[in-house]
Design brief:
The chain folds into three domains: 2-151, Rossmann fold (3-Layer(aba) Sandwich), CATH 3.40.50; 156-313, Glycogen Phosphorylase B (Rossmann fold), CATH 3.40.50; 352-519, Aminopeptidase, CATH 3.40.630.30. Helix 1 (13-27) packs across helix 12, helix 3 packs parallel to helix 4 (90-97) and helix 5 crosses helix 10 (291-303). The chain is built from 18 helices and 21 strands. Helices cover 33% and strands 21% of the residues. The termini are far apart. With 524 residues, the chain is α/β, with parallel strands linked by helices. It has helices at 13-27, 42-45, 60-73, 90-97, 179-191, 209-217, 231-236, 247-254, 271-276, 291-303, 305-313, 323-332, 369-376, 379-382, 393-400, 446-463, 478-486, 496-505; strands at residues 2-6, 32-36, 50-53, 80-84, 102-106, 117-120, 141-144, 167-171, 196-201, 221-225, 239-243, 258-261, 339-340, 352-354, 359-363, 406-412, 415-427, 430-439, 468-474, 490-491, 514-519. Residues 194-315 form the Glycosyl transferase family 28 C-terminal domain.
């Protein structure tokens, strides 16, 4: 027999993933009992064999003793115990290990453990394989990464459902406080009445009265309470907006474009890891932002939804919804063997050209949206800019889908070195080019920057042969002043026409802090 001790006090995520695991274990012929903190609704217990409620415990040792007493009272012979609970750690595991042959842990916050097998579906890129280094003994087996995300069986057979146009889904998972999101939803309904909005309200949700009131005034708002499964809603909506949590892998399995935020500790993720899953739009503190800014971003994403679909389909990690089945088979086998998720889809080969033996240049694509911002906001870059403040993610995402720059990335063996861009403008019936570059790596040196600028000027000389370049360079930035001087940029001091154009194109640049320069002018 297998016993699963699962936290049922903090949201539904723990219980639901253990439910899917239990059902797969039962399908393999195992008898499974779940031990929980509170009575669970019948709809959530559907398909399970036994779900028993434990008495309240004040310590981990007390909780372990309660589990053992219940096991004894039920005359169970337990071979394996699985625990999924942030409040129970190696102390609980050690106590249980003295009575049960095998202890298995489900975790996603990388704690130290005293267990035979640890299951953690979190993806941290190449670092995933090292998540439990020095946290478990070498004899313990590990199942790591999204390959072992335990989802409903429905996510393993997602059909090709036609997505509805202008259809937004909101969800906070099994619980959550809806007060702030209700303000955003109301504003969205008022500004975009053509949208259909589906709100999934979990059984433990709070502050839902405002939503109920809104639904009486807006016929396009549909409230769904305690849905058995969200799969059909994910597959049919244009865009998902909500808490990350379990939805991360459900969204990836259904390839649903999403804008997410965090409402719990385990929902914090490195953006690079989310990018690998095809999820490029996560702003942890989104609910603290001005509702008008959030709604503006939502509408901008909807305008460009096809581009978001392409990002989902090009994810480096494929989520097939079979994680619970894989974990169940591993648990049932005699010996545990470690297994770590690898990148399953080779990254799309992007067209590039070599500018040296190992350095390439290519056009920036939507997949660069987050690495571009990260590079732009590096302290070594911001001080050189006309706008020295860090760019906010909401502003960046909205700008990304509106800008008309020609942007490129210089890479060294596939790793970004620097981003470079240029843009054609007209002022007083005269065409001008402006541009810039910023490093994406500590390894960028003068030679790299010179290579990039040489390539850019050669390219623009070919495509815009009669256009003057205008630039402003921070006077303290000796590196770039020298670089541009060697490339043929000269001061425009005394040239009122060029100075007027430069001040129009760079309104934040002052004479006191910046050198105003130009290169080439076939109109002189």
């Amino acid at each position: 027999m297998i016993v699963i001790r699962v936290d049922s006090l903090n949201g539904l995520g723990h219980f639901m993933r253990c439910k899917w695991l239990a059902l797969e274990l039962i399908a393999l012929g195992n008898k499974v009992t779940l031990l929980v903190d509170t009575e669970m609704p019948f709809s959530l217990r559907s398909g399970l064999q036994d779900v028993l409620v434990l008495p309240k415990a004040n310590t981990q040792r007390c909780d372990a003793k309660n589990c053992l007493r219940l096991i004894k009272a039920q005359h169970m012979t337990v071979e394996k115990v699985v625990v999924d609970n942030y409040h129970l750690n190696r102390e609980w595991e050690a106590e249980m290990a003295s009575h049960v042959p095998i202890v298995i842990v489900v975790d996603d916050i990388q704690r130290k453990h005293f267990a035979n097998l640890i299951i953690d579906s979190k993806w941290c890129g190449d670092s995933t394989q090292f998540l439990y280094k020095n946290k478990v003994s070498k004899s313990h087996a590990l199942l790591l990464g999204p390959k072992f995300a335990m989802l409903s069986p429905e996510y393993s057979k997602t059909a090709s459902v036609k997505r509805c146009k202008n259809h937004i889904m909101f969800s906070l998972g099994g619980g959550g406080d809806w007060s702030q999101l209700t303000i955003i939803i109301e504003l969205l309904l008022k500004l975009a009445p053509q949208l259909k909005v589906v709100v999934i309200i979990g059984p433990n949700a709070v502050s839902t009265a405002g939503l109920q009131q809104l639904s009486k005034s807006f016929h396009q708002l549909n409230l769904i309470s305690s849905a058995d499964s969200l799969s059909q809603y994910y597959q049919s909506c244009s865009l998902f907006v909500g808490a990350l949590g379990t939805s991360l892998y459900e969204l990836a399995a259904t390839k649903t474009p999403a804008l997410t935020f965090s409402i719990a500790q385990n929902q914090e993720n490195h953006q690079e890891a989310l990018d690998d899953l095809g999820h490029y739009f996560h702003i942890a503190d989104l609910l603290t932002r001005e509702p008008e800014c959030v709604v503006k971003l939502v509408l901008k994403l909807l305008e460009n939804i096809e581009r978001l679909h392409k990002l989902r389909k090009s994810a480096a990690i494929d989520i097939d919804g079979k994680g619970a089945s894989r974990v169940a088979k591993c648990i049932t086998e005699e010996g545990f063997i470690s297994n770590v998720t690898k990148i399953s889809n080779s990254r799309i080969t992007l067209e590039h050209q070599y500018i040296t033996d190992n350095i390439t240049i290519r056009k920036v694509t939507d997949r660069d949206i987050n690495t571009y911002l990260t590079a732009r906001n590096l302290p070594n870059n911001t001080w050189r800019m006309t706008i020295t403040e860090k760019i906010d993610p909401i502003e960046h995402m909205s700008w990304w889908f509106s800008n008309t720059r020609e942007s490129f990335v210089i890479e060294d063996e596939g790793q970004p070195l620097l981003y470079i861009w240029h843009q054609l403008y007209k002022y007083e019936n005269q065409s001008y080019l402006i541009g810039g570059w910023f490093s994406a790596s500590d390894n960028v040196n003068f030679a790299h920057a010179q290579l990039a600028l040489h390539w850019q000027l050669k390219e623009t000389d070919k495509n815009y042969p009669d256009v003057t370049w205008l630039a402003v360079i921070n006077k303290q930035n000796k590196f770039v002043n020298l670089l541009n001087q060697r490339a043929g940029f000269t001061s425009i001091q005394g040239d009122e026409v060029k100075i007027a154009a430069t001040k129009f194109l760079f309104p934040n640049a002052t004479d006191a802090d910046f050198n105003f320069v130009a290169r080439g002018n076939a109109h002189e």
